[in-house]
Amino acid sequence: MQHLQKLVIEAIETSQFPETPTNLYDPIRYILTLGGKRVRPVLTLMAAELFGMQEMEEIIPAAKAVEFFHNFSLIHDDLMDQAPLRRGKTTVHEKWDANIAILSGDGLLVKAYEEISKCNPVYLPATLRILSKVAMEVCEGQQLDMDYESRGSLLMEDYLEMIRLKTSVLLGGALQLGAILSGANEQQQQLIYDFGENVGLAFQLQDDILDAYGDPDTFGKIVGGDIIINKKTFLLVKLMEVIAPEDVPMMQHLLHATVEAVPTKVEDMLKLYDKYQVRKSADELKDVYTQRAFEKMSALDVPKERKEALLLLANNLLVRQQ
Amino acid sequence: MQHLQKLVIEAIETSQFPETPTNLYDPIRYILTLGGKRVRPVLTLMAAELFGMQEMEEIIPAAKAVEFFHNFSLIHDDLMDQAPLRRGKTTVHEKWDANIAILSGDGLLVKAYEEISKCNPVYLPATLRILSKVAMEVCEGQQLDMDYESRGSLLMEDYLEMIRLKTSVLLGGALQLGAILSGANEQQQQLIYDFGENVGLAFQLQDDILDAYGDPDTFGKIVGGDIIINKKTFLLVKLMEVIAPEDVPMMQHLLHATVEAVPTKVEDMLKLYDKYQVRKSADELKDVYTQRAFEKMSALDVPKERKEALLLLANNLLVRQQ
User: Fold this and answer.
1) Which family, according to the similarity comment (chains A, B) (predicted)?
2) Which residues 87-126 of A have a C-beta within 8 angstroms of B?
């Protein structure tokens, strides 16, 4: 995996964009050099290797398209969410302004399509279809997330559909693009897509769990950060679903309290989580998705040894810091 | 031309989008039904007819892609410019909010690519290349426009490059897409593109002229609207270029005055325009572009009678209300 990651990082960080207008292209250069593990474009290359493709140069444009698309969505999402930081650095709309974030995000989305156009033309209708499908779904996920923000409660199925759209379909799509460009048939494409989508869902649940139960020494963010801002996570949605009437006033009190006004907000909410065993539900569902991902992988019709890299990656992603 | 316009309007207004999330798809439905002459997608069909294509159904997806792209740029530009109205109706960010305008614009840009993907796959690399080239140029033009807004002065060549990018390349690109899909060779594609770009430039100059000198009864907007808001137009940029030192204080005074504070702002600025004959310069340059457009058209290697519809359209666009 590491040699693929090196290939991806080099391809992305040596991407050339016009010098001017600087207010259009500097933010694009900036976000693309903020680093990160580049998991999504690496997945595209790994899927290609899985299906026996040797010429990674043929896959690089699709991998770049995936990373460009992801960074477009980061620029616009950070603006919509008014996030001040991204990977510990100032976000584009903070470093420049809202208009520049809108337009440089647009430009990066166009650049994603420009990259995908460089792929083998035989597969162009299929790769385009997947990129556009994933892109619309990510937009839908972001819209649902914004819609749900203002709601008091949320059905678990709506929450799961939202995280599927917002984060998991891109993992599946990144893998599927690599599969398409390696000549995999549609059934095999679907299996690798499903593997990615399920890994993504499991990963998102783990993210929700770690935010509340992570080891403060290794987590990297403030434990309880989601609780502090009342973020809709699996844990909160589950709690709302199963909470007994007599505990509702306590939960509502905590949801309406700032951590400044109620310094025990995080620990009090964790007590409710514990009382209703919502972590157990999250762990169980994470296991279901993980299991499903591995089933999809084992159904894939490629030599076993070629599956190892992706299985190892999934394992690393899903046992992180637990 | 009218039967093509009818085809286009029907194709656009019967486009189907998912019902939900409503905050993502309602604004897309809304902007696409605000009407307008649909000049750009009609140009795509007209270019196809010019090159002898009979099957308009094969061209419709490209025409829709052009109109979707145009409407994406309207949503985002209106937000960035904080415009309250578009075609006399509330703009998307006013009717909903800024975040919804960002995301529904993004969605419509993706939908533009989704449409272009439906075109004849043989031409897909070429059509994609043109759509992405035009899209990046339109983004560049919008960024330059925003950059120039805050500047005191502006070189004429920068102004002309900005309007070329912001408005003319899409007319050229719309025509080129129709040409590509009709099998026109690259030299013919370039000629029809150049025709469109020059018509676009002439049209933009005419727009600048009409805003200051249009007939109030037929213009449809307030005459002098650009002067009131100090919009950088050909006339103002030219004036700044040629004005004698002794008139600079007067010009600066008018640029710093609101029309409420100086009710004669429009007529005083027009006096300066007249003194320095900036309208004459604009008319002359408009004629240069118009002439160039007609030269490109006459260099095109298709039967003369097939050129008539586009020549008539250009004529209608460029002699409007003068």
Assistant:
1) Belongs to the FPP/GGPP synthase family.
2) 98-100, 102-103, 105-107, 109-111, 113-114, 117, 121, 124-125
